[in-house]
Design brief:
The chain is an alpha+beta fold and about 450 residues long. It folds into three domains: about 190 residues, FAD/NAD(P)-binding domain (3-Layer(bba) Sandwich); about 130 residues, D-Amino Acid Oxidase, Chain A, domain 2, CATH 3.30.9.100; about 60 residues, no CATH class. About 35% of the residues lie in helices and about 25% in strands. It contains 15 helices and 21 strands. Strands 1, 2, 7, 8, 9, 10, 19 and 20 form an eight-stranded mixed beta sheet that branches. Helix 1 packs parallel to helix 10. The protein binds flavin-adenine dinucleotide.
Length: about 450
């Protein structure tokens, strides 16, 4: 089972009327912000509505998460954990051709090139523990009902605590509110800031298996991305600890959940038939969880911050499960936001401009991931063929895949990739049009 034993936290801490900063949501984004702001000496209240440790999808890390984890002082804990080491990623084409695994350490022989496949319950708990160790007050029985505003300035939250409390609904004040509520995107919805991505209308079904085939040695913890025949969907294969593997299937929403497929089991069975390399890996495995489903999750916020508030992690946008970028971006935005908040207190400037000052750099990095995701979904586009034509861009591509997306010049690859993608799409559409009109 993927569920984790609840940790004995003891009684939930008593709350004050006011904190310097309130962080809503204790996923990676919120926990990192809280940890770093508290470390700088500010009073921080971190609120989550789920009992911790809680289940969450998103198990595969990418190498560049290393630096935030290092800054938090968590590397030793991770090294001592039983999370499988992820040395590489491997691709299986729709024609069942298995690429050689790509080892990150061959590209960058530094210990950051070996990352982890994490059970999120345990991983997120490590992060919240660090926030608490740094002085954050953490309540995991606290559902935020509203953000309080005076004019356009956020001034605190209205929260519903566990029913064991005498006075469960409270208003708590703060100078800054960090929204890290994940895909619930509290403020984005409250303020009407959601910009959904028309190019990525995807849906995912996933589950967990025990006893699936694992490769050996340093390939044991590799992420495998498997295309299905016809490339209408793809599977992830992420080995976790205790012989569990996370397996998920993603495709266009309309395709994944069309009328003839009333249950996720039906879509799953049909897509698995189109993926013999995965079928072989799951042949002797037992499914140990029911199916989970999520869809239409690709969006971004039109405004990242305002007076006294800032968005972090998925609360400010999400691209796609492909390339496993979500936790990295949550950690990184949590770190950027924390630094801007701490500086804002020093300068006595908690304006939206100050709290969101990192956003331009961040958005450029996110955009590098997004453009590579578009390429992945462009019918007929092949990374292999592109790199044969333009081998000089291999390092740009690897940099993006490992998460080194804020580096100057890493986007040079798109000078050639964007036109190739457009051409590929045009010729694909011509072929599709001519076959449908025949
Ligand atoms: C199908 C799928 C597969 C994915 N696979 C990967 C992967 O392999 N690798 C990867 O890096 N990323 C992956 N991701 C993305 C990853 O899961 C997220 O990007 C990541 O969890 C974002 O972290 P976060 O801190 O922003 O939010 P979350 O981790 O979602 O945390 C948000 C927290 O806010 C709390 N919350 C929400 N609303 C309230 C409220 N009103 N009051 C109090 N608390 C609240 C929730 O309980 C939750 O604990 C995947 C995403 C999807 C959809």
């Amino acid at each position: 089972m993927i569920t984790t034993t609840p940790k004995e936290y003891g009684p939930q801490p008593t709350l004050k009327q006011e904190y310097d900063v309130i962080v809503m949501g204790a996923g990676p984004g919120g926990a990192v912000s809280a940890a770093l702001i508290a470390e700088a000496g500010h009073s921080v209240l971190l609120l989550d509505r789920s009992e911790f440790p809680r289940f969450h999808v998103g198990e595969s890390l990418i190498p560049e998460t290393y630096w935030t984890l290092k800054r938090l002082g968590l590397l030793e804990k991770l090294k001592a954990s039983n999370f499988p080491r992820k040395h590489s990623v491997q691709f299986v084409s729709d024609g069942h051709k298995e690429s050689a695994p790509f080892y990150f350490e061959d590209y960058n022989p530094h210990e950051c090139s070996v990352t982890w496949q994490v059970e999120r319950g345990v991983f997120d708990q490590m992060l919240t523990d660090k926030a608490v160790e740094n002085g954050t007050v953490f309540r995991s029985d606290a559902s935020v009902m509203d953000v309080l505003f005076e004019g356009d300035r956020a001034t605190g939250v209205k929260v519903k605590l566990s029913t064991k409390e005498q006075n469960p609904v409270r208003e708590i004040k703060s100078q800054v509110v960090v929204d890290s509520t994940g895909q619930s995107s509290f403020l984005v919805n409250r303020l009407g800031l959601k910009d959904t991505d028309p190019c990525l209308k995807k849906g995912t079904i996933w589950s967990y298996y025990k006893g699936a085939l694992r490769d050996e040695g340093r390939d044991e913890g590799a992420t495998i991305i498997l295309q299905t025949e016809g490339k209408k969907s793809w599977f992830w294969y992420i080995p976790l600890s205790d012989d569990v593997v996370s397996v998920g299937c993603t495709g266009d929403m309309q395709y994944m959940f069309n009328k003839s497929r009333s249950k996720p089991e039906e879509t799953w069975a049909e897509e698995l038939e189109r993926c013999p390399a995965l079928k072989r890996r799951l042949e002797n495995a037992q499914q140990c969880e029911s199916f989970y489903v999520t869809k239409d999750y690709s969006y971004k916020a039109t405004q990242p911050a305002g007076p006294g508030w800032v968005l972090v992690g998925d609360a400010s946008g999400f691209i796609d499960p492909c390339y496993s970028t979500g936790v990295f971006l949550a950690l990184k935005s949590g770190e950027f936001a924390a630094d801007a908040i701490v500086e804002g207190f020093q300068k006595n400037d908690l304006s939206g401009t100050q709290l969101g000052k990192w956003r331009e750099t961040y958005n450029k990095g996110v955009d590098n991931f997004r453009r590579l995701v578009y390429a992945f979904y462009t019918p007929g586009f092949s990374f292999g063929s592109f790199l044969k034509m333009y081998p000089q861009y291999k390092s740009n591509m690897v940099d993006i895949l490992i998460g080194d997306v804020f580096k100057d010049g890493v986007d040079e690859i798109f000078r050639e990739m964007d036109p190739v993608m457009r051409k590929t799409l045009e010729s694909h559409n011509e072929v599709t049009d001519s076959t449908t009109t025949m």
